[in-house]
Amino acid sequence: MNRRSIVIAALFMITFSVSNADEVKNDSIPVGTGIGQIPEVDEVTRLGEDSLMAEYMPLDKGNVWTYSVQKGDKTKEHTQSVISESGGWSVFDNYFGKEAVSLRIAPGGELLVTNEGVVSPFYNNEVMMSFPKKAVETPGGKFEQAMVVTMPEDREFWFRDVYVKGVGLVFHEQKTPTGSSSYSLLKAKVGGKDYPPQ
């Protein structure tokens, strides 16, 4: 084989490879199968948005809650709000006295928290959930559709969180070896709605 034949053969191979690469490139990702379009992926992302926790813990930017905080014989007010959203995380300005706290509802519906770069479940698997039929009343209003998350009372550390559908956390109480405290909703602005109504 002479030199000219080798060059022609090499050019043919390069041309053939490039044209096949274009075909592979164009057909490698079929239409309608990108992230969020594959049925399995869409189902996972949908679960995160429609989960039970998402209904009771609205984490949209701009939501604000103000609580009356009772610790021992001292009472004060605490306000916290979602100041930004990033990568599925809702960033709080001051979450119950802690800065740089973010919350997220995972695709399976689990509430996650990140603080100082560490991501962990907000609740452990020992918590119990209930849905009392009785209305919950705080200075922020009288609410139906509550979800109560609590620990068994025989523990050294005990708490009870009361969430209201579409409003968020309206009451928290806890008991530890060093004392007890509670947070009761005074007012909130969630999803553009005021509680109590203005």
Descriptive report:
By secondary structure, the protein is α+β, with helices and mostly antiparallel strands. It contains three helices and 14 strands. The protein has a domain of 138 residues: outer membrane lipoprotein receptor (LolB), chain A (Clam), CATH 2.50.20. It is globular, with a radius of gyration of 27 Å. The N terminus is likely disordered.
The H/E string reads HHHEEEEEEEEEEEEEE
Kindly report the CATH topology of the domain at 58-195: outer membrane lipoprotein receptor (LolB), chain A
Identify the overall geometry: globular
CATH class of the domain at 58-195: Mainly Beta
Which regions are unreliable across 5 or more consecutive residues at pLDDT < 50?
A: 1-50
Largest sheet: 12 strands, antiparallel
Distance between the termini: 91 Å
Radius of gyration over all CA atoms, rounded:
27 Å
**What is the structural class?**
alpha+beta
What is the helix content? Answer: 10-25%
Secondary structure tally: strands: 14
